[in-house]
């Protein structure tokens, strides 16, 4: 609704009024007052309650009109029945912003949604930004402006830090906060927006990104209504070097239902969210605890470079476990350079094997300097980007404090990321004191490092501009689907190879087409009214003679007359190949065009070996995506098979995505199957293009 610059008033108010103020610090109307007084807010606090003279030792006012000034921020902590009047009062009093903690609106059903919309229209007409309703509130821990009623800040003292938490859920905002604080990490901003009815979580995300000290944002979403602000925020974060880690819930049918009842909005298809987040450099996690888990890595200030990792330990078992885990995750374990191998051979015990993972052996107990000297050599190796140190046990006799100092010195000198894992908190504390990220589990540490590396790669990708594509000429028809012939023609216009075929109005044309096509042919009905011909048994395969063609043609027309569908037929070459893949695109109502690519054929929905991309994207990105599929080895060619023409496939995906951007009349494109022939070339065997519905007055 508002420019994110105007939203700074939520986090930096000079004065705060609380409608529904209470003496009880454990009430919704009492906690914000208690928190602001306890945590150093220096602005003016105005409790508003006509039944009280004082609230928490502050002068209480009967209404907003009796305040000595126009409040920067008004918190509404009254029932839904009184909320409309409270918003009217706030608008009349000249409030600059409103946080509505009251619940009982869009999250409860149609009646609540209607009241919510009435309130939002009132606030928007007055130009007053509103967070909520059903909002737990916001907090700025750097200045004590805690307009929030969570009990968490009673239990766990806040501390300022370079992290912002933005959430549509109250609980999902304070849980990562608690996990951060337990790890000794502070957060500056926390925002729980509730129903996102006016100011959205994405707009608040833009607002917190104005702070140059924010380095990491943790984002929890249950619904995404529109993407403009989120895309702007993601691009702003990318430019500023700020990482966004997000949890988008509502992925199951029950989760979608729960999210809808929770926030009053429909959840979005999960695979599309994945594609959208990847496109915009947002790393998606699957659990609230994962939001904060890798925070130390993001705040380390160290780049993971190309992501080539080395594990060093004084336990061979730790090294084996880490090597296995890294391979399963697809991590790149570094190869030691010849110079590093020679240097390590000079300092290592003779029985120590010199490779990655590197086992310092029990010799570390008798020679503590081995730790620092080995680290120096490893940090000088240009083949290594990240060093993971496994500390399975360290007690008396081990110079743990010296190890930690050596790790910090090596990291500072080389600029390389070093992290440590081990079960003993007393050991990890030495490294933590030196600013080295620490984790209790070895595999946990590698998993979070893998996340950090993957996210770094996402952020290095620049969103390409769409290649200029002329809007496709759509056939003049009011039907929702194009015929297969018209669909194939559009693909030909895009330069995507399609099967040799002919559209035939009569038997003579069908016989001519048969004579011009080498080998067996397929005959099938061709009508925009019959998008799925096989469901009506309107496909004839393996036609080798004119007699068989005539028989199929007549049978097809008999069925069409019985069904009441006027239609032509298509005569097409019957292709053979080794694998069917799928290529398609559709226009998502929230996220816009998305392209699907993956293993195809009739088992597409069962195998689910596919992914989505949001255009514009490059052929290189498509190739990277294909390597994530289980079908990838087959595409490369196995047991003497020719590799698929991957360049042609990637270019087709790019063209398909760009065509949806350029042609708003297209709703979806389904190319299934796309056959990989025995020579590796690709050919589209079937195509279905659907038209986008005409916009209604409500869409304008």
From TrEMBL:
Segments passing through the bilayer: none
Record key words, sorted: ATP-binding, Ligase, Nucleotide-binding
GO molecular function ontology, one term from the record: ligase activity
Keyword Cell division annotated: no
SUPFAM superfamilies for the chain: Glutathione synthetase ATP-binding domain-like, NAD(P)-binding Rossmann-fold domains, Succinyl-CoA synthetase domains
InterPro entries in UniProt: Acyl-CoA_Synth/Transferase (IPR051538), ATP_grasp_subdomain_1 (IPR013815), CoA-bd (IPR003781), NAD(P)-bd_dom_sf (IPR036291), Succ_CoA_lig_flav_dom (IPR032875), Succinyl-CoA_synth-like (IPR016102)
Ranges where the CoA-binding domain occurs: 10-105
SMART domains according to UniProt: CoA_binding (SM00881)
Keyword presence, Transcription regulation: no
This protein's name: CoA-binding protein
Species this protein is from: Aestuariirhabdus litorea
